[in-house]
Amino acid sequence: MNQASFNQSLLSFLDDSPTPFHAVVTMKQNLQSAGYQELNEQDEWVISEGGRYFVTRNDSSIIAFTAPSLDFAHQGFRMIGAHTDSPCLKLKPNAHVERFGHHQLGVEVYGGVLLHTWLDRDLSVAGRVTFKTKEGALKSRLIDFKDPIAVVPNLAIHLNRTVSAEGFKVNPQEEILPVLCGSDKDFDLDKWLTEQISRQHDDASVESILSFELSLYDVQKAAITGLHGDYICGARLDNLLSCYVGMQALLSSNDERPTLLICTDHEEVGSQSACGANGPFLEDVLRRLTPSPEQYTQTIQRSMLVSADNAHALHPNYASKHDQLHAPLINKGAVVKVNNNQRYATNSETTAVYKDLAQQAGFDVQTFVVRSDMACGSTIGPITSGEIGVATLDIGLPTFGMHSIRELAGSEDAFNLYQVLVKFSQCPELISK
């Protein structure tokens, strides 16, 4: 695989994954095509030497791993972690709003959304719907309308004369509701969802809609952009970019060392859920693979996690927002993220492991430290490290516009990180003790 084909597949992955549910489906399809076998948490697992497996939880988180041998206690895992969710607008349970001549959707802000970027965009709806069938069973199905069916119109400058000088603070209760159509048109939310389920799923005979988890998203496709194709521009780069890179690294691992990919939901709202990094999903899987507490601890202590989540690139229009000695540039290599207050889980040894692998591959490594007078964000790295005790490196690809409806990253960086993570998956020893 070369950089061009890698990036084209990345664009397709982004476009096919408007929600965490869809991202997991897309990853499942890629894993199954590569011979990975799906496990069910409700079943007894039989893991065979040389096997490749994956398991999902809540349809929105996934763990995949290789088992070249079953001696996990003496080999450990080379782990790559990312998250499937992105800041967005999600429909409220009673989502239909009719007011002032329009049908609208009531929405709740999910995560740290840059709200103004959602104005004047062509939006669609996707997610999971749970319903009762005509036979009396309860089922869930994913839907994606794909077409632009909603928009959040901006307020004309004539009605807000100070907006250019003072900025526009969007009220998330009153001013972010998307418009669907005029109120002279028929609109019934349950009927609308039922018809979409029937269009997408032949096996779904809907009696009544019971609940849903639906998100709005921008229908504009991801693209390679810039005068010389320097950038990848698209929605949900944070953090589907890392999910894709981790998945491709797993698929390219040579089965010499056990390798594990974990992509969890709900990072943008704290990861505190049954399928989030602050939940038991990863520990549950690892304990099923190690039959005794002794072997479990040995496995963890011989493992390392690379937590991959986007990093803030030095923005040429806002250079003062960075510590000038720790200001990553786009297309100049992945970024090791360091915070001595443990907002990132990086330490000197995990940094050394990555730098050594990157140097072997011929790539530069950058470092990000937030300005000392600014608050630092966090990732699944400290959460996972704190939950199971695994040595962890926080790393990311430099990005502009993080949490915008459309973000910007380098067209070289993702492929370069992928190559280093392939070497990481094959690394026989981490730090000599």
UniProtKB/TrEMBL annotation:
Q: Does the keyword ATP-binding apply?
A: no
Q: Which UniProt keywords apply?
A: Aminopeptidase, Hydrolase, Metal-binding, Metalloprotease, Protease, Zinc
Q: What cofactors does this protein use?
A: Zn(2+)
Annotated EC? 3.4.11.-
Protease as UniProt keyword: yes
Q: From the UniProt record, which GO molecular function terms apply? A: aminopeptidase activity
Looking at the UniProt entry, the stretches that span the membrane are none
What is the designated name of this protein? M18 family aminopeptidase
**Which species does the entry assign this protein to?**
Rhodanobacter aciditrophus
Its lineage reads: Bacteria, Pseudomonadati, Pseudomonadota, Gammaproteobacteria, Lysobacterales
